[in-house]
Batch of 2 targets.
Target 1
Amino acid sequence: MNEVGHLVVVGASLAGLRAVEAARRTGFAGRITLIGAEDHLPYDRPPLSKAFLEEAGVPIPTFRDEKVLRDELGVRLMLGAPATRLDTDGRAVVVGDRTVAYDAVVLATGASARELPGGRDLAGVHTLRTLDDAVAIRAALDSGARTVVIGAGFIGSEVAAAARRRGLEVVVVEAAATPLVRAVGEPMGEVCAALHRRHGTEMRCGVGVTGLDGAGQVERVLLSDGSALPADLVVVGVGAVPATGWLAGSGLLLDDGVVCDETLFTGVAGVYAAGDVARWHNPMFDRPMRPEHWTSAAEQGAVAARNALEPDAATPYSTVPYFWSDWYGSRIQFVGIPGADEVRVVDGDVRSDGRLVALYREGDRLVGALTLDAPAHVMKYRGLIMRGASWRDGLAFAAERRSGAAARPVSRDLDTDAIVDR
Amino acid sequence: MRIIVDRTRCTGLGMCESVAPDVFEVNDDGELELRTATVPEGRLAEVEQAVACCPNEALRLAP
Ligand SMILES: Cc1cc2nc3c(=O)[nH]c(=O)nc-3n(C[C@H](O)[C@H](O)[C@H](O)COP(=O)(O)OP(=O)(O)OC[C@H]3O[C@@H](n4cnc5c(N)ncnc54)[C@H](O)[C@@H]3O)c2cc1C
Ligand code: SF4
């Protein structure tokens, strides 16, 4: 096995940064080059739809300053330099007219926001994926924009919550009858929609957007039911697509992401992938996944780098996916997988604010848990899922937590076991 | 071994708790509490794994 002399990481964000840090932590003393399309140093995305939007002046959530990257981590930075091609035969990353040879490469180009057709033509219409997007959206909120969010996913929902917090009028338009069905399942999507309504955000579910209208600047959002919503700011939150365009013709298997085995290996010598761009086989649930979650991206970055440097000692990345989202001062946390046979509310009341815990069953296994404002509960379920707990174990644990909790009104417990079959 | 939490980095996500629940616990306010200040007998590997999995690198072990 040849020693790796030069590790190249493409994508200078969370997964890419963690790859670089892990490489150094394992004692790798060779050269590292970090190639990123954006001009910015690696920064953290989750705050962009949360604290960053709440008021002007919240600082940019940069992970490390340039000195740390260059001097402490010994990284050669190529920023504002989108890779244009991967030459797997010649073992090189092509960046426009420059060629960067690698011994091992970690692909961490993440995802980009899906756009509405024609959306780019009007001012005031934004997706939210990058710092530049967030800066533009924040400026519009600062000027008191009437806001329409297209797509009631997590990012769109967080933008709506941030706009409401400033007292602005917000409408969320969602094509599906219930939001977030793919992310958390139907019953819990309903709970999330109710959270919006309770905080004064208007929800228009089951209607499509047929067009955006305005002279230069967006003025109206046209809906499939014939109505129109006045708008100064339109935030399009209709999902993200893995940034694999530059990998066309590389010989890598691309299928909604870079397809990897359980060690994040692409099957092509020296090439590993991590983060939102990677669709890897997760041994924990024995299926391929591309979760688009912060935690997976961070952990995969580290695993991919270690495996790229020492392929003979490669370790699998097995995980119970986890994400969180903050709306209206509430924290939604989800562990596991949502495509379940049954979702059961085991604590709290779906109709009111306050703590809520729901469990997800697949066959006779506990596969997921969603909590609302129950930070002390969620990781206990993650632990159970990680240890392969049965559905019965999950329910027993929930019952124990409930009875162990401080005395709560009986009326609340009555509907806590509402079964929602799908 | 002592367990050290860098409060400026910890965001109470609780990944550590899912790995070593008898050592780490996020409370109802979303803050991390240590259930023991030092690594319990025979549990070093588990705690090391918890330290490694903190996405914010907020945990450290010190002699
Ligand atoms: C607004 C927002 C809020 C979020 N909130 C949460 C949350 O609350 N909880 C949660 O779990 N997750 C959240 N996420 C998801 C989380 O941020 C992502 O999972 C994470 O950023 C993925 O990291 P990554 O490094 O894989 O990809 P990315 O962060 O997408 O980074 C990829 C980088 O690669 C660069 N790149 C792309 N193509 C090229 C190329 N050809 N050459 C060079 N560089 C390239 C991009 O410019 C980008 O900088 C949120 C995401 C967004 C956008
Ligand atoms: S995993 Fe890290 S950030 Fe999360 S609670 Fe533990 S120490 Fe804090």
Target 2
Amino acid sequence: MEIALIGNPNTGKTSLFNNLTGSYEYVGNWSGVTVEKKVGVFKRTNGYLIDLPGVYTLNPLSKDEGVVTSFFLHEPVDRLLNILDASQLERNLHLTLQLLEFEKPVLIGLNMMDVANKRGIQLNVSQLAEILGVPVVPVVARNGKGCDKLEEVIATQPIQPKKKNLVHYGKEVEAAITALSKEIEGKTEHSHRFLAIQYFEGNEYVRNYLHQIADSVTLRAIVTNLESELQRRYDCKSLTNFIHLKRKETIEKIAAEVAVKTNAVTPLSEKIDRIVTNKFLGIPIFLLLMYLMFMLTFDWVGTPLSDALDAFFTGPLSDWVEKLLTAIHASGFIHALITEGLIAGVGGVLVFVPQIFILFFFISLLEDSGYMARVALVMDRIMESVGLNGKAFIPMIIGFGCNVPGIMAARTIETPKERLLTILLTPLMSCSARLPIYALFVGAFFAGHRALIVLSLYVLGIVVALILAKIFSSTILKSETSLFVIELPPYRLPQFQSLWRSTWDKGKGFIRKAGTFIFAGSVFIWLLSYVGPGGLNVDMDHSFLAAIGGVLAPILAPIGFGTWQAAASLITGFLAKEAIISTMNIIYFVPNDANLQGLLADYYTPLAAYSFMVFILLYIPCLATTATIYKETGSKKWTVFSIGYALVIAYVLSLLIYQGGKLFGLV
Amino acid sequence: MVSSLKAGEKGKIVDISHVSHLVQRRLLDLGITEGSEVCVKCVMPFGGPIMIESCGQCIGIRRKEAVQMEVVKV
Ligand SMILES: Nc1nc2c(ncn2[C@@H]2O[C@H](COP(=O)(O)OP(=O)(O)OP(=O)(O)O)[C@@H](O)[C@H]2O)c(=O)[nH]1
Ligand SMILES: [Mg+2]
């Protein structure tokens, strides 16, 4: 049994999905969190539950909405579970009416009952079920209330909805529906009425589908006739509008019967909004929040924790392992591999787990509170001036965690050019894998101003992205259309449990990567540093790793770090940014109390260190990001471009910083 | 024009046919068409977007689109 979740954006579909399947998919308080289809298995009943992006109608504008429509037309599904936001019943019912026209068994989950009640909206659930002719179950997806009941209803046999056309579109449209139905008779298993109405509304996916199975000229003629007739009789502006109004009439009738509104208090949301989206305070507040986040991550909480972990790894842990290895008489090779390769390489990355978790916690807080959409609103003016729109800022903030979901999030941007631009620029956002490198270097060189220096890097990433957006959008990616309409969800007080879960879910990836990718990489890098043309256990300067790094080193000399060590770590950074840290730990390994931070001072000047950090911030999207760019753009050309421009801009900026800094007498 | 309303003022939309087609579609999705009542919540500086409320939900739109929406004060 396959059941698809479908509903307006931000109505709690994914929350319910997580609840029913026990999985943890991405939840956030803004529209367009889920951008692709996800499949899960029911915890109790058997069968599959499919989570889909949110849509307002089945007539898509953006890529994530297209996912839903094409799922509808091309994939068989037994049953639809339509999630409605009870506090926004009217708007949500537009989609429901379309789903009912589809004539597949529908089941309604009336979510956010708590919010509706708080706003003084009382709903008569059984009457709603009666009117719509399908089962309706009230739930609160957030805390699981009503989910048992919902599962019970799901487990029962789906009943075909009582075929009654809820919306009567007027005799002209109804006649056209009949005419069109005749044309496609016997050519499709989908509901004719559904296809006809969607076709009239200008649904592109349905149009392509129908033009494949029936004569496009005849179909078009039906629409043109209908349009001119409606124009003449009712002076209506467009067919889409006409159909929308007819649905609205029906919905108003339904709402009048089932909903009772008592007087409600002013939502807290509005009070908060008066401050955070204040005319003048909006942007300063955002920057202040960012600054707080960095202080906590790099100064107040994160660094002490990471230092403690580091002391544990280099101290007691190394000693125990050392003793263990001696006790079991491990060979010198194994001994070196484990202490100099694995503990240095993997441990060197793991010590940053506390800082990364704090950062993720903040990102989750942004996502869950409802502030995300406000940031998009506050930033729109700036983004517009560089040829993007405020919505592009959401992928960028998500990119601070990891670039991959950031790039995926660009799917919600409606115009293709702006979406492409966002995909290309999101890798410039400093992801969490780059954070260990900053933590290491600011600790070694800028101990007094950790948070400030790191903030400067994050801001630099954004500024470079904005400047490049301006350049690209006025040269290679010119576009006339821009669209910015954003829904601002009410603030929701994040629950600690869901915050922790989403933090853990993001952080898990980092730990997992350390255990697999970085683990294997560390072994490999260590081997390269252990063997050389001269044989095994060579001096590291004569190893293969030194030889490889040495090729690139001269090119890097003008930007301040022309050592084979720097070059070698940068190469591994393409695989994963954390690999830079593990490579450095392996290369600069000194037994006992190894303090990489202290050692670094011998190899970098503070100016070179800053230049190095800037280079790492910008130089290349990692392998996973590159793969995602390719998947999302579907173009080799743009993928190569995204790597190429990043390399150029990183080199140029580092050169400016290093050489410019030297001119001004900085070292 | 919606943009002529000050923060806190309410209006009823009478004509949005001059707004670009895509934006019209999106507004329609959100339930905002001719006849809807809107209330301006706040206005971003430097010609930035406007936050409006309609039927209990808040929506951000750009100033240049707001300019093309004809409203009557209520
Ligand atoms: N108060 C309350 N909040 C809820 C409820 N269900 C979900 N939420 C919150 O609503 C927000 C949106 O939830 P999601 O599950 O991401 O919504 P979605 O429908 O998957 O959203 P998209 O993927 O963007 O379409 C989150 O902040 C949830 O915590 C509920 O029943 N009551
Ligand atoms: Mg979702």
